[in-house]
Design a protein that fits this description.
This protein is of the alpha/beta class and about 300 residues long. The protein is about 45% helix and about 15% strand. The protein is built from 13 helices and seven strands.
Amino acid sequence: MEFKHKSVLAKEVIQYLAPQPNENFVDCTLGGGGHAEAILNLTGPSGKLLGIDLDPEAIKAAQSKLQSYGDRAVFINDNFKNLKRIIYDAGFNKINGILLDLGISSFELEDKTRGFSFRGSSFLDMRFGATEKTAAYIINQYKEENLTRIFKDYGEERYAKLIARAIINERKIQPISTTEQLVKIIEKVYQHKPKLKIHPATKVFQALRIEVNHELENLQEILPQALELLVKGGRIVVISFHSLEDRIVKDFFRQEAKDCICPPKVPVCTCNHQPKIKILTKKIIIPSNNEITENFRSRSAKLRAAVKIA
């Protein structure tokens, strides 16, 4: 199966990363290599790009796409939460920019063996790489209160408790192992509810994917590492696709851009906190109407960027 993925906010990524000749960049979510190629085109003759992806298929696709850049492109199949170790092991230094595109690729969505999509029927896997738990394990083993929490917290699902209870009742009869089985359970819960603009299973599938791959925890782990690794004047760009991710990025940027982080009632600053970044995007950057028309999956993308000042 061909690895398909259309890079989101490609022009805006280049605008805010502002790559220059001979600078080095890290693409922490390499995907098919679209953003990476645009960066490499602007950082010759000796600038390098280190591309990280947890999905081995993404690494293969990017290696094929970027082979003409030779040793200027370095590929690592790993979890971006291990950024400091990856950088150290690769001997990659003087990093001028770091990119995080947190979206799922079209290839991963359409791969019937992955179980990311609620369309069709496939095994409930949802793993990007070699994590220990599949979505099927979670659906069949987690207690009702834990399923409710996941659907509510990670999916912002209005009927989280009802869906969790329906899953518990169904799995008493038979194991729930396919996406089709899960979709039918969710649709049954929604059959007498107001109609949605999105598919009823959208939020539950999002929540399961986040839980399986520890996506929010990984994002929280990488942001301080990325800031530490950047040179002064280096830039970080993050593209998120739902409010939970965007909130983590927004809060981190705001915290690191502050002079003082003492509690409001403290009369004199004792934290000695100094701003480490300047936020470049006072308002989030979203795709244009033209981009959404050409790539509907970009509709929920939100870009935030900052530059390291200390």
